[in-house]
Amino acid sequence: MTDGVEGLFARTEEFPNQAAQARLTALVGLDETKDRLVADAVVLLDPTFISDWSTRVHGQVIPAVRALLDRTPLFIFAGDVGVGKTELAEVLGQAIARESDTDVTLYPLSLTARGRGAVGEMTTLLTRAFERVSKDFARARRANGKAVAMGVLLIDEADALAQSRELAQMHHEDRAGVNALLRGIDGMRTDKLPVLTILCTNRIGAIDPAVSRRAASVVMFERPTHAQRAALLTRLLACTKLQASDIDELAAATGSRAGCDYGYTYSDLRQRLVPEIALSAYRRGVAVDMAIALEVTARTPPTRPFDLAG
Description:
By secondary structure, the chain is α/β, with parallel strands linked by helices. The chain contains 13 helices and 6 strands. The chain has helices spanning 18-25, 31-45, 48-58, 63-68, 85-100, 122-136, 159-162, 172-190, 209-214, 226-236, 244-253, 266-284, 290-299; strands at residues 13-15, 72-79, 104-108, 150-155, 195-201, 215-221.
């Protein structure tokens, strides 16, 4: 990683790298979503891949491909807190780099650049952020359209920047910020820069319709299913005394149940439940077993759902 550029971004990250690959591998249960997004991103950032495919199998670049290439390289990841959307957004560049055999740079927009603590500066800072990314990738495409480098601009908690301008209570500065966001996204599309913008939000209903309409893909992230919880617990609790039947029972215990109609998030399992299971066994000086796992689960409730309606 490198330090943020001009205070506009958190620490930028270059892909591929081993640490990002480890994080990508740890995203259990999101393989199908990840694979689809990577394929879409590679095509959006380097149209030569799908143009070559069309020419090879159809003998020409078919109209469907031309229509596809008119899409804006913008993804919106929406869903509850802790369901993996930001984690995937932060390491998607790793998968894109491996798939395309092209270096990818991640630009996470910093809290300062998002206008927090700097009232009246959000529009200027957003504009500067897009200008900086555009400058970095102005020559990242060959004459034939082939990308020699790619970028990912990540805006987390995007509803703070891209909330609907239809809201009556919206401040004029916030409206200007949404306009600046749209100009930046449209500008990179018009200039055909190999840069993917990813917006993450807990409130998809709060995103301005003009932003949502531009997205090539809007992905709703859900809490893990029983099978996904079991897969993650199997990996995290490997080498303990827990058997496959124990893992299945624990996966059931971390799902919806009487008195609670929602289950655990990925973050609940990875950052709260499993670490506490290990610590509980450590404090007692014994091995992790099912009794401890169930005891900890009983006193570690899942995170309450965030209101997605906005």
